[in-house]
Amino acid sequence: MENKEKIIKALKDVLVLTRAGEGILELILSKAQDKIIIIYKNGHFKNVNIEADSGIAIIKDVIKKL
Question: What is residue 37's three-state secondary structure?
């Protein structure tokens, strides 16, 4: 089974190095591990549904929300 917490931490570290992700402050995994909250430095946020996602699907879904 893939470790969603590790995937999300690594993804956040990579995204902040890009123009599309430079405004990201944090990626937070919900307790149920079915949603990610993207929190931006300006206070805005976006929810990403990752229920039943594989590791690669998590990455794709987060990128689509940027």
Answer: strand
Taking the whole predicted model, whether its pTM rises above 0.85 is answered as yes
The torsion angles phi and psi of 15, rounded to 5 degrees, stand at: -60, -40
DSSP symbols for 39-66: EETTS-EEEEE-TT--HHHHHHHHHHH-
* pLDDT, tens digit, 9 for 90 and up, residues 43-66: 999 999 999 889 999 999 999 999
Task: Determine the pLDDT at residue 1.
Answer: 73
Q: Report in angstroms the alpha-carbon separations of 36 from 6, 43, 49.
A: 13, 16, 7
Give which of 43, 48, 64, 66 is closest to 4, Cα–Cα. Answer: 48
DSSP H or E segment with residue 9: helix 4-15
